[in-house]
Amino acid sequence: MILALETSCDDTCAAVVTADGDVRASIVSSQGVHDRFGGVVPEIASRHHLELVNAVVDDALATAGAELDDISLVAVTQGPGLVGALLVGVATAKGIAAARRLPLAPVDHLQGHVAANFLEPGAMEPPFLCLIASGGHTLLVRVTDHRGYEVIGRTLDDAAGEAFDKGARLLGLGYPGGPAIDRLAREGDPQAFDFPTGRGVAGLDFSFAGLKTALLYKVRDLGDDAPRADLAASYQRAIVRALVDRVRETGAERVAVVGGVAANSELRAALADAALAPLALCSDNAAMIASAARYVEAVPYPRYLALDAYAAAI
Q1: pLDDT-based confidence at 256, cuts 50/70/90?
Q2: 263: three-class secondary structure by DSSP
Q3: Which of 26, 34, 102, 289 is most buried when burial is the number of CB atoms within 10 A of its CB?
Q4: Residues 6+ apart with CB under 8 A from 34
Q5: Based on the domain organization, do 288 and 271 belong to the same domain?
Q6: Do 132 and 179 fall into the same domain?
Q7: Is the peptide bond before 42 cis (omega within 30 degrees of 0)?
């Protein structure tokens, strides 16, 4: 069995997954302290990971009915993400693996999102098109095998999840912004305002900066009389249209959608014919990291003791 850790942002995650992709346990501990700041504070996230990571690992093992002696491979997110947060996971994984002379599989966070599609039940086999939409990344990739992907479109500025967070802040909503806008949008008219969808961007790339600015100006113009539900519904519709239009332009018949934004109800309805990640696997989790680890070349002891985290995508 594989024990995996994921600490790239503000969720402390551990999972136990079999070599066949069967999820025995997936524990996600959300810190729940960043909403007062309107976003994740890296130093606070790192400190909370230190406090939580051992308990989360213990919880995952107990839920799986396993012990450390049952683990044959340790996996961990190496990057991208908040480097201080990542280092907590990397150091913990190295310690667990080294204590038992186990191999360690360093996993790229984005490859982890793609590999969520390879978990049972209903594992999806390549080739397929995958939309990765989260708080930090928005990519359109062509998946031809289990080990990697080809990027065919990416955001030129904000990620879709970041656009949701910034839009929620402009509307006076809480953090994280995606769920807050999704809830409020159900009470509004998505046709009330015509927001830009980045159609002027060439190729299959995305752009959400103009949309965010358009919402800012509209909120300023309307002032206290701003119909927040209509604004939320129209803003959400613009983000979803931007994502769906790019997917449709590829003409791909087999499409998967992963990442935190994949939990958005309007996006799931618009791409109902796609393979949509289960809600539990949309946001950051360690099960997807374990899934990717099955196809990563593991590093034997003691070579991984020098392993370092990386903050930006490579």
Answers
A1: very high
A2: helix
A3: 289
A4: 10, 40, 41, 44, 45, 175
A5: no
A6: yes
A7: no
DSSP for residue 296: S
74-108 pLDDT tens trace: 999 999 999 999 999 999 999 999 999 999 999 99
Instruction: Quote the pLDDT of residue 35.
Output: 66
Residue 74 lies in a domain: yes
pLDDT of residue 112: 98
Q: Are residues 294 and 235 in the same domain?
A: no
User: Where are the extended beta strands (E) located within the chain?
Assistant: 2-6, 11-17, 23-30, 73-79, 104-108, 128-133, 138-145, 148-154, 255-258, 275-276
CATH number of the domain that residue 220 is part of? 3.30.420.40
Do 292 and 255 sit in the same domain of this protein?
A: no
Q: Are 89 and 107 in contact (CB under 8 A)?
A: no
Inform me whether the pLDDT recorded for 165 exceeds 70.
Answer: yes
> Is residue 193's pLDDT more than 70?
yes
153 and 102 housed in the same domain: no
| Coil, strand or helix at 16 | strand
The yes-or-no verdict on residue 41 having pLDDT over 90 is: no
Q: Are 25 and 60 in contact (CB under 8 A)?
A: yes
Q: Are residues 150 and 52 in the same domain?
A: no
Is 314 a domain residue?
no
Domain of 210? 128-279
- 167 in a structural domain: yes
Which CA distances in Å does 23 have to 116, 185, 282? 11, 33, 15
Packed helices 42-64 and 83-99: angle between N→C axes, nearest 10 degrees = 30
Q: If you average pLDDT over every residue of the chain, what do you get? A: 95
- Counting residues of the chain whose pLDDT is more than 90, the rounded percentage is 89
